[in-house]
Design a protein that fits this description.
Blueprint: E1 9-12, E2 15-17, H1 23-26, E3 41-42, E4 47-49, E5 52-61, E6 64-72, H2 83-95, E7 102-104, E8 107-114, E9 119-126
Antiparallel strand pairs: 1-2, 3-5, 4-5, 5-6, 6-9, 7-8, 8-9
Length: 128
């Protein structure tokens, strides 16, 4: 899933996030479809990472990757029970030897549930 030594996250052959990854680099991938580097970018469809399906979105700050959010979609979660997805995310992190909230030289990984927006995600924050 995520290389804890260097922060590398492979979404596809031509989309690999790492500290310092730039919007200009993203523009060279097959996923670039005219998005701008100011707004949140959502990839179309599900992306498969380690045989699991995710909705992937990310945000650049000052032209460099700031956060990548992963929402696992292997299990249908009933409306109003999105908090259960956080349990799935916590388990995915645990299976990969990652404890939510752990900081690394390159950034931090967090499993979050936002009650206000009713969204659970695995968020990978890259140090700026």
């Amino acid at each position: 899933m995520l290389n804890l030594n260097n922060g590398e996250l492979r979404i596809a052959d031509d989309l690999v996030f790492y500290p310092g990854y730039t919007f200009d680099e993203f523009k060279q991938t097959s996923f670039y479809k005219g998005q701008d580097g100011i707004r949140l970018i959502n990839l179309d469809g599900f992306q498969e990472i380690d045989e699991k399906k995710y909705v992937v979105n990310f945000f650049f700050r000052d032209g460099k990757i700031y956060v990548v959010s992963l929402i696992n979609c292997d299990v249908d979660i009933p409306e109003g029970e999105e908090g259960k997805r956080k349990e799935i995310h916590d388990l995915i992190l645990k299976q990969n030897g990652i404890e939510s909230g752990t900081s690394y030289k390159w950034g931090e990984v967090v499993s979050e549930f936002d009650k206000r927006s009713n969204i659970s995600s695995i968020d990978i924050y890259y140090a700026q």
